[in-house]
Design a protein that fits this description.
Distance between the termini: 27 Å
Number of helices: 12
Radius of gyration: 21 Å
CATH class of the largest domain: Alpha Beta
Structural class: alpha/beta
Number of strands: 19
């Protein structure tokens, strides 16, 4: 296996003895062999990382992939290239709907298909059969096949009895069930956040209560059963407040926010741009600021891409009929930097350590003897996201053509270096 020497990187990892220091990192046989200043070792590949930040490899909690069934929207190869370019070394993937990932064979197939890709593919299984919110899947069979957790993607579960049975059944398995709090009955026909903007645009709204009411129900059931609960796709100020109170009350709850909900609001929909039609919707500026506050005070544990690539046939139509979702996995860092002064500790906490805690995965660190999964990036480099740099098949990327702040130089996956393909022109 190739040996790698990363020279003079700024290590950001509170679990590392080198946190905050400029450090050399020597990688051998897929592991971090040594760290220190001016290491005198020979390596097959030497990388000058002066001015760059090294962090334990980032993990995305949920990316949707069209393969199998809708490969023209996104396949594993395009998803992994986009994720790697975005700085991720691990991606939890909900793959396909023909068939759905609701049985062990689908999980095994995904794991095998992801073996040689530039990111670690972590299979997610459906919570319910065909994500219909009715009958539970066989969690244990899928766990044995390699599933790291369970999600129904865009399909929330509204049956409270089923929610409680899922929590009880999964308590012994200790794999995360990723609940998406959304009561569709409170938002019939909704297309965007309910507020001044939806009224002025003449679009049916999705009120914040459709999320917060469902979240409160999930939290009450978890408190009653005394079991951990994991929440994804938080988007409203009311939900942040509920999470804060739940944590203060001792409920073992961890939550993630979609990256673009930190960046956009319902005002971005003023031109009826279909690329801003997502679930959960971009809400008000008040909600966006509450999400940031929740991140900085630890109420929200992780940032997720909420990546859902769509083809032009599903987006280049009237807003009412456009498909949901944004192609986001390649630009999560840029959402977390927010165009302002980057908080390196927050980036590390919400893209690396926080997602691992939420998913119940082993703790990792930038220390000798640890696996060599590393993200190397510049938090301040500015670059233009030209369409030719979009490695996802998804056309629904709202940041295309814009000047962005924060650039991933490359990643190390299991001891193998993958340069960002954009580095040649942008770094």
């Amino acid at each position: 296996m190739t040996t790698i020497l990363i020279k003079s990187a700024q290590v950001i990892d509170i679990e590392s003895a080198h946190h905050g220091k400029q450090t050399d990192i020597y990688i051998k046989d897929g592991m971090i062999e040594a760290m220190g200043t001016d290491l005198e070792v020979q390596a097959d590949k030497e990388l000058n990382a002066s001015g760059l930040v090294a962090n334990t490899g980032w993990l995305d909690i949920l990316s949707y992939c069209g393969e199998p069934g809708e490969e023209w929207k996104e396949d594993l190869n395009s998803l992994s290239r986009a994720a790697q370019s975005g700085g991720f070394t691990h991606v939890a993937v909900l793959a396909g709907n023909h068939p759905h990932p609701d049985h062990a064979a689908a999980i095994s197939a995904l794991q095998k298909a992801g073996e040689d890709l530039p990111v670690h593919i972590l299979p997610l299984g459906n919570i319910t059969q065909q994500a219909q919110g009715k009958d539970m899947t066989e969690f244990h069979d899928m766990a044995k096949a390699g599933a790291v957790g369970f999600s129904d993607g865009d399909h929330p579960i509204s049956d409270t009895g089923l929610i409680s049975r899922i929590m009880e059944y999964n308590a012994g398995l200790k794999l995360p069930v990723l609940f998406f709090p959304f009561d569709r009955k409170l938002a019939p026909g909704g297309r965007m956040h309910e507020g001044v903007q939806s009224a002025s645009l003449g679009l049916k709204g999705i009120p914040a209560v459709s999320e917060s009411a469902a979240l409160e129900q999930i939290l009450q059931i978890a408190s009653w059963l005394k079991v951990p609960v994991r929440i994804i796709r938080i988007s409203s100020a009311e939900s942040v407040d509920l999470l804060r109170k739940a944590k203060a009350a001792g409920i073992d709850v961890k939550a993630a926010v979609p990256a673009f909900n930190l960046l956009f609001t319902d005002e971005n929909l003023a031109s009826f741009d279909e690329n801003y039609k997502v679930l959960p919707p971009y809400r008000s500026e008040r909600d966006r600021m509450a999400l940031w506050q929740g991140l900085t005070d630890g109420t929200i544990d992780a940032v997720m891409s909420n990546h859902h690539a769509q083809d032009i046939e599903n987006k280049a139509v009237e807003f009412e009929y456009a498909g949901w979702g944004a192609s986001a996995v390649q630009t999560v860092l840029q959402a977390v930097t927010g165009g302002g002064k980057p908080d390196l500790n927050l980036i590390a906490a919400t893209l690396s350590s926080g997602p691992r805690k939420l998913m119940g995965l082993p703790r990792v660190s930038l220390n000798p003897g640890q696996p060599a999964d590393i993200t190397l990036f510049s938090p301040t480099t500015e670059w233009i996201f030209e369409p030719s740099f979009n490695y996802s098949k998804g056309v629904n990327q709202p940041l295309l053509g814009k000047t962005l702040k924060g650039f991933v130089t490359g990643t190390v996956k299991a001891g193998t270096w993958y340069a960002n393909p954009m580095s040649v022109k942008n770094a």
